[in-house]
Amino acid sequence: MKIGILSRNRNLYSTRRLVEAGEQKGHRVDVIDYVRCYMNIATKKPSIFIGDEELNDYDAVIPRIGASQTFFGTAVVRQFEMMGTYSINESVAISRSRDKLRSLQLLSRRGVGLPVTAFAHDTKATGSIIKLCGGAPVVIKLLEGTQGVGVVLAETQKAAESVIEAFRGLNANILVQQFVKEAGGADIRCFVVGGKVVAAMKRQGAEGEFRSNLHRGGNAALCKITPTERATAVQAAKVMGLNVAGVDLLRSNSGPVVMEVNSSPGLEGIETATMKNVAGTIIDFIVKNAAMSNTKTKGKG
């Protein structure tokens, strides 16, 4: 097969591992800087180019779209779909998961466990929002934040009010969530491929840090998850429509709650912590499903 990895940096661990795994299994794997692509949106003959080269003969693509390039990146994925190329994560699913508010609303509708979450525009509702989430401490998140950036723990009512009003003063969209104290600054990253949890790790935040992101100094270790946690992660990925997803769970007193569903989960932390060949599992899934032209939306969404 000829597989394209839509990535801006071929030296990133995740990109390198996917290239290695594909080539070890006898496939041709190219890294495509999707921001350099341009598209011909022609009737019944869509095409994609980089420079003078037309990218028209790929069997499958693996989107590794950065959060800051979601709009253009998903447009490129959608164009590949319209050309009949299989995408392991489709454009509609990526867009859905990147919209934190929309994703939480969809998960809520399908009964997936979530922390109590509030969203509003009017700062006059600040007190009611905090009360809705069980009172301080609460977690305040920018909708556009990634890797723990734009996430604040407000430990008192006054602090929460100040942060919310400051963010709203910048015209930023925010979510306010219940603080799950019993999680102890740790979360569970479940790596889902094709409706199965293929690896799981526990991420523990650095001392004094409530965020468990590895980019913020957290550490990761192999983790055994419960059947309920496994089912929650699989259901969350399914609701988003993602074949490959990193589902982040917190262990709360009421059971597992989903914090985020990531459409471009990194491979370094999960492969290092679990010693599992997750990249190879992704390639195997592509080979099985691309051959069946198993694309749901074909660029319609």
Helices and strands in order, then pairings?
Blueprint: E1 2-6, H1 13-24, E2 28-32, E3 38-40, E4 47-50, E5 53-54, E6 60-63, H2 70-82, E7 86-87, H3 91-98, H4 100-109, E8 117-118, H5 126-132, E9 138-142, E10 151-154, H6 157-169, E11 174-178, E12 186-193, E13 196-204, E14 219-222, H7 227-240, E15 244-252, E16 255-262, H8 268-274, H9 278-290
Parallel strand pairs: 1-2, 1-6, 6-7
Antiparallel strand pairs: 3-4, 4-5, 8-11, 9-10, 9-11, 12-13, 12-15, 13-14, 15-16
Helix pairs in contact: 1-9, 2-3
- In CATH, the homologous superfamily of the largest domain goes by the name ATP-grasp fold, B domain
Q: How many domains is the backbone divided into? A: 3
Strand residues, percent: 25-35%
**Count of runs of 4 or more consecutive helical residues:** 9
Radius of gyration, Cα only, in angstroms? 20 Å
Q: Which consecutive residue ranges, at least 5 long each, have pLDDT under 50?
A: none
Count of individual beta strands:
16
* SSE succession: EHEEEEEHEHHEHEEHEEEEHEEHH
Widest β-sheet, arrangement of strands: 14-13-12-15-16
Mean pLDDT: 89
Shape: globular
CATH architecture descriptor text of the largest domain: 2-Layer Sandwich
Secondary structure class reads alpha+beta
Largest sheet descriptor: 5 strands, antiparallel
A few lines on this structure:
The protein has helices spanning 13-24, 70-82, 91-98, 100-109, 126-132, 157-169, 227-240, 268-274, 278-290; strands spanning 2-6, 28-32, 38-40, 47-50, 53-54, 60-63, 86-87, 117-118, 138-142, 151-154, 174-178, 186-193, 196-204, 219-222, 244-252, 255-262. It is α+β, with helices and mostly antiparallel strands.
